[in-house]
Amino acid sequence: MDDEEARLRRVVERLQNVPLISLPTDYPRPTVGNKLVEAAHIGELPEQTSRGLLKLALFDDDDVDDDKSDSVPETPSVFHLLLAAFTVLLHRYTGDQDIIIGSSSAVAHDPLLLRLSVDPSDPFWAIVRKVQQVERDAEADVLPYETIVKALAKDRDEKPLFRVRFFDGTDPAKDNFIRSTSSTSDLTVFVTRATTTSRASLAPHITLKILYNSLLFTQTRIAVIVDQLSSFLRRVASKPLSPIGSVPLLTDSQKERLPDPTADLNWCDWKGAITDIFSQNASKFPDRPCVVQTPGDELSHPLTYTYGAIWRAANILAHHLLTHGVQREEVVMIYAHRSVELVAAILATLKTGATFSVIDPAYPPSRQTIYLGVAQPRALIVLKGAGKINSTVREFINSELGIRVEVPALQLLRNGEVMGGSIDEGSVDVLAPQIHLAEIDPNVIIGPDSIGTLSFTSGSTGVPKGVKGRHYSLTHFFPWMGQRFEIGEHSRFTMLSGIAHDPIQRDIFTPLFFGAQLYVPTPEDIGTPGRLAEWMAEHQVTVTHLTPAMGQLLSAQATAQIPTLRNAFFVGDVLTKRDCLRLQALAQNVRIINMYGTTETQRAVSYMEIPCVSDDLTFLSTQKDVMPAGSGMIDVQLLVVNRLDKSVLCGVGEVGEIYVRSGGLAEGYSDTDATLQKFVQNWFSASNTPRQDTMLHPKEGHAPPAARHWKGIRDRMYRSGDLGRYMPNGSVECAGRADDQVKIRGFRIELGEIDTLLSQHPLIRENVTLVRRDKDEEKILVSYFVPLEAPDLAGFESDTISGDEDKGVAGGIRKYKRLIKDVREHLKKKLPSYSIPSLFVPLKRMPLNPNGKIDKPSLPFPDTVQAASIESRRAGTQAVNPTEATIRAIWGTILPNAPDPIPLDESFFDLGGHSILATRLIFEIRKTFIIEAPLGLVFDHPTVADQAAQVDVLKNADLGLDYKAPGVPTAGVAKRAEEYGTDFESLKQQLKESYSPLPDDFGTQKFRVFLTGATGFLGAFVLKDLLQSEQVSKVFCLVRDGSQEKATERLRQSSTGRGIWDEQWVESSRLEVLCGDLDQARFGLSAAIWDKVANEVDAILHNGAFVHWVYPYEKLRPANVLATLTGIELASAGRQKLFVFVSSTSALDTPHYVQLSDSMLNDPDGLLGVPEDDDLEGARHGLKSGYGQSKWVSEKLLFEAGRRGLRGHIVRPGYVVGDSKSAVTNTDDFIWRLIKGCVQLGLVPNINNTVNMVPVDHVARCAALAALGHLRKNCAMSVLHITAKPRLTFNNMFLSLARYGYQVEQCGYLDWRRKLERHVMEVQDNALFPLLHFVLDDLPTSTKAPELDDRNTRALLESVPVETGVSVTEEVMGLYLAWLVQVGFLPQPMSSSGQPLPQVEGAAGMVAIGRNRA
């Protein structure tokens, strides 16, 4: 015992504070629960890799081994080498240096948890030795996994210990461990080694079987992992001592999808100067509207300025600047606001060959002076609408800058005339001398390398850096954008970007290039909630450039739709799925383009397109929360470079630093040293032959004048400082910053700059600023600081704080409220408003990690729950009435004979709705509101009022599928979700206090059986088994119909259609049909019939039920639950009867039973899964389907009745499918609808989960035997699990389609789901249409089924010979498909390459019959 305690102590010590690896995924990781759709990929390592493994195994490390002991190092096995390489891949994918992997042991039964430390500079051989040592340590301390988990206090519902597993397929079975950790594992690798002959190569033949969660990964990514593992092993085989961080992961197959860093990017493709192109447009159509400006006066009409008017104004201003000595590339500073004057001032500056820069009057005066100091302008243009320059700024201009010319008040009048204002009161307008030059272009030559813009970025020293932008980028990408995004002279643009940031250039230059119109809003249009959308709709805007923050402002409280908006280009910050959904809700025709770039890259950016919802409603459903950077535009490359060796390009999935390669980069910074650090020559093409400079040396004619301002071909890259990785399709996703620079609301912020200035406050001792997310997941700046204990500090402390109030973060904020205010004012003088932290948190001391550095994750976050919830409630209240009206209108178009008006509190189903119409309703709700409304919403919330409330939760809180949000109650919603559990407690009061024992003569004579559900699929086979048994003298069948004759005929037809009817049953009077109904009192039987059955029958076999996968519990309750109570009543009326109830494993569909079954494997008592004597308490909460809930309540009532004396059995099968010999099956079944839907779609999902499919003849035989007393007659409601052995996987089932010639392709589950949803929306006749809620919402959890122990069933079958099939084999699947084809349910296979379908005897007289309610 002491030894086990010591081992446990060592294991716990090794596994303290284990990190949780976060592998790059293709799809968003579910935020709630551990959903799993398991898929499998088989990859064989090439012969060359196998030879590399052999070479590594023989590597002699005597010279490099640090172990100086006399022991000889153990030769690594193939498994060790593969595990070491796999560990390196995990490190390269995540950047993590502390990795934990679940694994197996060749010498121990229990699994191993291997914690491996990895450094990019480690040689590969060191990792191999580390793997061996860690494995030895783990084997020495091996313990049961459950013991380790318990010792580490890891709740199964919390974060798992590991997410990746690596097993040797030849090790002893670890079924328990494998199943119990499957739902929390992202990847599992099984290594198998083929047996070979003596003639085979010495190199091992290795196969990798990878099981993965297809809700996270595509099959392409898994294939990439195998490819990279193989490539990595081949490379290190020749150099085992190579640093693992720099061994290339880029494979030949990946190179085809990733950018070639040596490719020609059309460096000499100069499109011309934007000023020249604008002048050409003004010459072609001088009277065309160019800028349309909304006046501040609401009563005034928009101010429209033509191309000709702006061209003339720009010419006048340009001549004025030139006359007063402005030289080429000198800076002209514009003191501006959004207006036509800003457009004219920029054009005028560029026409002179000078460089423009813009100052926003909203900046603090101190910030304005810093910008002026960096820019050193020689001219100043003040727009009249921008107001007066601050006195301290004016003083700085006068004393520190050599301004040659100033335009004090630039204004364009309504008639197009331009005025510049007067220097002195009463003097002439400064532009008056140049008015006569309005029609004359200055004709200053501009070339691609001319400097036209000066923008600012934050600097780590606190001083902003000036970025000098080239003319090349101002026009180069527009022709491509026009063609790619259908932009042209017909387009209408907006001016919404911040005027002092480089995106404003995109706002202005794009329409001027195309000859389009630019619309300018007022500050009120932008700032008033909801107004901006109205403004865009009013002006029929088609193109807009936004930051995510501006997009959020656009969608805030917006109700107006913008149907004309076709393109929305986002740039400047991280774009989230929520941002996209909000915009799509306003503009269903908008194509969203996420653009990645910086001030330094100018227009050279990458892009990722999100199609409009009118084209593809489902696109965003498979996207992660943050949109990727995408791929480079024309002549732009995003290169992800290895951080350890810059000469190595990263492979797919590997984290590296992003470099932007393009001819459109900015010239650099004002600071030459900073330019050299960030703008670098392309070392990948350094040895390439120089390309021909067609700008200086054109193929025909002489070099153009612009070539005088061209520095030649420069293959440069910009080092972004962003981390990123290539995705399998070649696009790039960002993975954080290599430094502390961040972006918030579109503004780039240097955290170091904030901390530098914060530390200059006299009362701050320590400080650190972080980006945190608030309760709405919005990024905010939080500064943590420790006040300096100094005499002056007392003056900033609150004098109303008690000792208790001083405790905690909130107390500290209250105590230092005055100090925080002073600190904020201190920063306001030095930083722009967007760089001021939102929260300041005073601390007594900074938390430190073991390295003595600030432990940032441990810094507290002030609680903002109350404020967030208040805002959420306010938003919800505002949106209710319009949402109700919209949903009511949708109902009116869907419901047949809908009342007018439609009541807000009546059920959709009570007004004529059904499951197919409910599916249509959900699609309309999704399309109208642009939300991910789950298909079960209509059933859970069937009224207009409830649906509107839930839609508002989804719209305003962006909760996705988690639509049952707390804090937004709707009538009956919370109660309905779990009422089945409380309903059982109420219904059990209707049971008798006790039930009599079975009669002494029970089973001594032939049985008379009362059967329900005989017209259903399973019931028909139960009826056949009963009447074919010599133990049965008579069967009473309850059939729902108007008369006994009609009921008999209905039973005859349903049984004949399944090939099992025998007229002798009726003629011999062994079958008597009784008219009744399950949901009626006493089954609708007359008193005489009831008494007859009560006194004559020996056993009740209650098989009847209303089977529906989407109806809620309350709708199924009468036929499924109350009917069970009626059956119990009948069992105890007259002579006591055996009661057999046919249930379903849907009563177990909760995570509890999956976890329970995992823990029961390898049980010491021999249990094979969920025991049959389980009390079902694990499903009291959490069952999703109303059908499963109704079966749970029925079973619980029977358990309780059994405790009170009732005797009988509960038969609990899984999916009941066709007869194993005749193949006749039920076509109205989820399994066969799934098969048919896949055939119609032409795609099958990759799902490796098992499915408990049991042939109907086997289930019927078990139910009949149970009713005939083949188990102990005094058994108190024992359960019989009917489970397939072995179980088929979904992949086995789907692949049978291709085997028999159906043209279907396999794809990932999420890809299949998305394409199915699109297919159904387009055609609405797919077989899965009525069950889409199950496929699209619940399949990930429903396909993960628990294993079931079936010892009672095995005992039952031991008493009689059984010839039925207990599972569905591949051969039986062929029979089923053949039968489905013959009865017309499935089409004939189209491909001749598949094997022929087997022949089914007797199918000619059978018909495709769906499930019936008896």
TrEMBL record:
Citing just one GO molecular function, the answer is: L-aminoadipate-semialdehyde dehydrogenase [NAD(P)+] activity
Q: Which residues form the Carrier domain?
A: 878-955
Using the UniProt record, name the top-level EC class of this enzyme in a single word. oxidoreductase
Pathway(s) this gene product operates in, as recorded in its UniProt entry: Amino-acid biosynthesis; L-lysine biosynthesis via AAA pathway; L-lysine from L-alpha-aminoadipate (fungal route): step 1/3
Q: Which domain of life is it from?
A: Eukaryota
Per its record, the protein catalyses:
(S)-2-amino-6-oxohexanoate + NADP(+) + H2O = L-2-aminoadipate + NADPH + 2 H(+); (S)-2-amino-6-oxohexanoate + AMP + diphosphate + NADP(+) = L-2-aminoadipate + ATP + NADPH + H(+); (S)-2-amino-6-oxohexanoate + NAD(+) + H2O = L-2-aminoadipate + NADH + 2 H(+)
Query: What are the UniProt keywords, alphabetically?
Result: Amino-acid biosynthesis, Lysine biosynthesis, NADP, Oxidoreductase, Phosphopantetheine, Phosphoprotein
One Pfam family of this protein, by short name?
PP-binding
Q: Which PROSITE patterns match?
A: AMP_BINDING, CARRIER, PHOSPHOPANTETHEINE
Q: Which cofactor does it need?
A: pantetheine 4'-phosphate
The record's CDD domains line, in alphabetical order, gives:
SDR_e1
* InterPro entries named among the record's database cross-references: AA_adenyl_dom (IPR010071), ACP-like_sf (IPR036736), AMP-bd_C_sf (IPR045851), AMP-binding_CS (IPR020845), AMP-dep_synth/lig_dom (IPR000873), ANL_N_sf (IPR042099), Condensation_dom (IPR001242), FAR_NAD-bd (IPR013120)
The biological process GO terms on file are:
lysine biosynthetic process via aminoadipic acid
Q: What does this protein do?
A: Catalyzes the activation of alpha-aminoadipate by ATP-dependent adenylation and the reduction of activated alpha-aminoadipate by NADPH. The activated alpha-aminoadipate is bound to the phosphopantheinyl group of the enzyme itself before it is reduced to (S)-2-amino-6-oxohexanoate.
Family according to the record:
Belongs to the ATP-dependent AMP-binding enzyme family.
Tell me the protein's name: Alpha-aminoadipate reductase
Species per Swiss-Prot/TrEMBL record: Thelephora terrestris
